[in-house]
Amino acid sequence: MARQGLGLDVRSAIHAARQGNGPVRKEGVRLKHNGNTLEINLHVIPLNFEGEEEGYFLVLFEEQRPPEEPPPKKKPPTPGKAETNRELEDALNELAETKDSLRTIIEQHEATNEELRAANEEIQSSNEELQSTNEELETAKEELQSTNEELTTVNEELENRNTELSQIIDDYNNLLASIELPVVILDAGRRIRMFTPAAAEQFHLIPADEGRSVTALKIGSELDGLEERVKRVLDQGRGQDYEVRLPCGRWHAVRLRPYRTVERKIDGAVIVVLDIHERKLARDHEEELVSAALTFAESIVATVREPLVVLDGDLRVVSANPAFYKTFHVKSGETENVPIYALGNNQWDIPKLRKLLEEIIPENASFEDYEVEHNFPEIGRKRIRLNARRVDQPDGRPRLILLAMEDIGDG
pLDDT (tens digit, 9 = 90+) per residue, 196-244? Predict the structure, then answer.
């Protein structure tokens, strides 16, 4: 709060100090005090403190003392006009200072207005940016809500799939537990991926064996040639079956199949081991019996005095007895595995014989006492009585036909 008459001078000095960022000295400032006019010197010094954003100013007032003069001499009294002129000059000086102060105030006001206008524009720009940001946030909020809805739907689908997957895994585990066959699944690197309880018992597998190479385990040594066979299955994509006798003495059938993914890609192999010991013994015994029966039958055929021929389903000669070779002058090398109609330069291509073998035998198991008369190149014209019987073999093996011939004289 400056004394009346000092406000303009103090304000202008402070403005000058702020603009110049340095001390300002203003001399000859007039001040009325107790009816007298005093002249003082005005000092304004800027004060800047660290950490303070707003600056401070130190304002000093110094009384200006007039120079000492010699004692005044008696002069004639000064006329009143001179005093009036001095007062007028002081008034003009004060008016000039007032103008300067007003100019300074106007400039400060205009600068402040410019700053306010710039600040207002910045505020408007910030408001527009904030409004744009709010709109973007609203849009982002809507997108987030939409994304949340999609995620909720996806989560529900995943939960449903997890439930289905859990059900499939339960079914899979129960299926493996209920299979009483040794089954081992290998990956593409021929490492064990999983196995059934029966396989664990048969080959002494433990859970820690999963991931180990099959060749490093007991199963690799007991199943003869397993590594090479699995490699062929992986390379060729075709299954293989073979029989092996395990150290326990029992025969087993090993079935190797490629492990295919949903995309039909081969990603490993499946090993199934079946105990066929009793079946193999029965089959071997049956083969021995059949072999013995064939030997016995061949012995009987060889001792029969009449010509006798054994034909297969395609009417090719399987075998013939010595009486046939002797009677019709043919040899075994040119007879066996040859169609009967082509024997001896087609000498057996007899229409009636064709009808008997191709029409009657398929419908009836046998025919008896059919007589045919034919001119044979080597032995002349003969009358022959034919007897035939169809032999149906077990296990789906090809049927055979026994054809017996009896020479009943010349034609």
Answer: 888 888 888 888 888 888 877 777 777 878 888 889 999 998 888 888 8
Q: Mark residue 263 as left, alpha or beta (left: phi above 0; alpha: psi -120 to 50; beta: remaining).
A: alpha
For 327, 380, 383, 399, the CA distances from 349, given in Å and listed in that order, are 17, 15, 15, 22
Say which residue the tokens 């055979």 belong to: 400
Burial of 328 (0-12, 13-18, 19+ CB in 10 A): buried
What angle (nearest 5°) sits at the alpha carbon of residue 371, between those of residues 367 and 373? 140
- Give the predicted TM-score (pTM) of the model: 0.42
Report the C-alpha gap between 200 and 184 in whole angstroms: 9
How many whole angstroms separate alpha carbon 98 and alpha carbon 114? 24
Helix locations, 181-236, DSSP H: 197-203, 218-222, 226-236
pLDDT, tens digit, for every residue of 3-35?
656 777 777 778 788 877 788 887 777 777 676
Dist. CA 191–CA 234, nearest whole Å: 13
Closest among 384, 390, 391, 387 to 403, alpha carbons compared: 387
Distance CA 304, CA 363 (A): 27
Share of the chain above pLDDT 90, in %: 11
Helical (H) or strand (E) element with 394: none
pLDDT at res. 407: 80
Dihedral angle of Cα 21, 25, 30, 31, to the nearest 10 degrees: 70
Helix boundaries (H) for 179-209: 197-203
CA distance 253 to 190: 20
Give the pLDDT confidence of 66-114 residue by residue, as tens digits. Answer: 655 555 555 555 556 777 887 787 778 778 877 777 887 888 788 888 8
Render 350-370 in DSSP notation, one character per residue: -HHHHHIIIIIHHHSSEEEEE
Q: How far is CA 382 from CA 60, 321, 371, in A?
A: 168, 19, 10
The single-letter code of the amino acid at 287 is E
